[in-house]
Amino acid sequence: MTKQKEIEKQLNKLRRKVKADNTICGDKACVIVLAPESRKAHVVFYLYSEKNEATISRYMTQVAVQVLKQENAHACVVFGRCVERWGKPYEELVLVESNQID
Asked: What's the confidence (pLDDT) of residue 38?
């Protein structure tokens, strides 16, 4: 299975979980793709329910900071997608660079 297919499978599984329980947030609501050392940014796909839209940016930023600290990376990009609007592209984006955190 290719890496892309693997990620799609994980996202579909997570989508079902978030749809079933709209209280899921933070690191339990994402698929993290760690980049090889030759790349600067790790990527996170964050899934959320419409009910949590008001706080989504804060949670996405927290996840990015957590990944940066744990993985000692240069940057982390988080793409947010609403499970109720799955047919639409990712609607939220957060970029955090290591020089932005303490």
From this structure: 67
